[in-house]
């Protein structure tokens, strides 16, 4: 089983006195739901910090009030409305140049200000583009809006002018069943990131979407957290700590 492979790889890191960092990003939060509560309970149980990518336009005080007792949760900006402006035939994209850049950047500023006001110290100045897509021409303007980091999917681009904290393993099978991916495939994928180049990554990002999780996803997450949360070679990190690191 690939879970055994991941455990063996972690054990080897521990023997050599090395550690790997993990972090968890969950997208599309707007309001309290049973699925969100299930994720909050699971992450709190295993002491896994949770970064919620919140859609600013439709959210409000109800979510902010719900999260006030959740000390392990941080909030980041998930675009503005999670609405695609790409024409038919193109991949979905909210943060593209299908509209004037001033309009897109204005919405990103509004989203930053709204979530900062709602969530206070829980808020982190990181942009999570809907569908993990943002036009490169918009990136230079982000620091002036207050953003200090960007999070998309895949290997980090070290040439960016702001910090890049990406996710690397997506639990969802978006192009097939639209449910959870096979657990063995996911464990193997994580193990592969740890072994790449012979050196563990600084932070391996796990990507979830609580609103569409099926039983397979919840079972996988519990298995992953059970394996890693108490392992001497693992550290589950929050966005605040990761962005403060060099």
Structural summary, described in words:
- This protein has one domain (2-244): TIM Barrel (Alpha-Beta Barrel), CATH 3.20.20.370.
- With 246 residues, it is an alpha/beta fold.
- Helix 1 packs parallel to helix 6 (183-195) and helix 2 (34-46) packs parallel to helix 7.
- It has helices spanning 2-15, 34-46, 61-67, 101-119, 142-145, 183-195, 215-228, 239-244, and strands spanning 20-29, 50-54, 73-77, 123-127, 149-150, 163-164, 169-170, 203-208, 234-236.
- Helix content is 37%, strand content 16%.
- Strands 1, 2, 3, 4, 5, 6, 7, 8 and 9 form a nine-stranded parallel β-sheet that branches.
Features:
TIM Barrel; 9 strands; nine-stranded parallel sheet; 246 residues; alpha/beta; globular
Averaged pLDDT: 94
Distance between the termini: 36 Å
| Structural class by helix and strand composition | alpha/beta
What fraction, in percent, of the residue positions are helical?
Answer: 25-40%
Tally of DSSP helical segments: 8
Query: What is the CATH topology assignment?
Result: TIM Barrel
Uncertain residue segments: none
Q: How many β-strand stretches?
A: 9
Element-level helix/strand string: HEHEHEHEHEEEHEHEH
Percentage of β-strand residues: 15-25%
Q: What kind of sheet is the major sheet?
A: 9 strands, parallel
Q: Domains counted in the coordinates: how many?
A: 1
CATH architectural type: Alpha-Beta Barrel
- Give the overall form: globular
Under CATH at level 1, the class stands as: Alpha Beta
């Amino acid at each position: 089983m690939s879970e055994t492979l991941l455990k063996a790889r972690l054990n080897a890191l521990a023997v050599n006195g090395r550690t790997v960092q993990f972090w968890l990003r969950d997208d599309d939060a707007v309001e309290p739901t049973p699925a969100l509560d299930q994720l909050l309970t699971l992450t709190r149980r295993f002491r896994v910090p949770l970064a919620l990518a919140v859609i600013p336009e439709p959210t409000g005080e109800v979510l902010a009030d719900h999260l006030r007792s959740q000390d392990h949760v941080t909030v980041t900006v998930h675009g503005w409305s999670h609405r695609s402006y790409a024409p038919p035939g193109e991949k979905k994209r909210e943060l593209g140049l299908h509209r004037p850049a001033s309009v897109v950047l204005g919405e990103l500023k509004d989203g930053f200000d709204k979530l900062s006001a709602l969530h206070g110290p829980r808020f982190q100045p990181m942009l999570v583009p809907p569908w993990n897509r943002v036009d490169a021409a918009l990136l230079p303007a982000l620091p002036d809006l207050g953003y200090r980091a960007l999070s998309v999917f895949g290997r980090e681009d070290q040439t960016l002018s702001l910090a890049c904290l990406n996710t690397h393993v997506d639990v969802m099978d978006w192009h097939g069943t639209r449910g959870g991916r096979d657990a063995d495939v996911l464990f193997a994928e994580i193990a592969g990131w740890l072994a790449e180049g012979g050196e563990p990554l600084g932070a391996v990002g796990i990507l979830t979407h609580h609103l569409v999780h099926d039983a397979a996803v919840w079972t996988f997450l519990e298995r992953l957290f059970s394996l890693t949360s108490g392992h001497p070679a693992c550290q589950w990190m929050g966005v605040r700590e990761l962005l403060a690191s060099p």
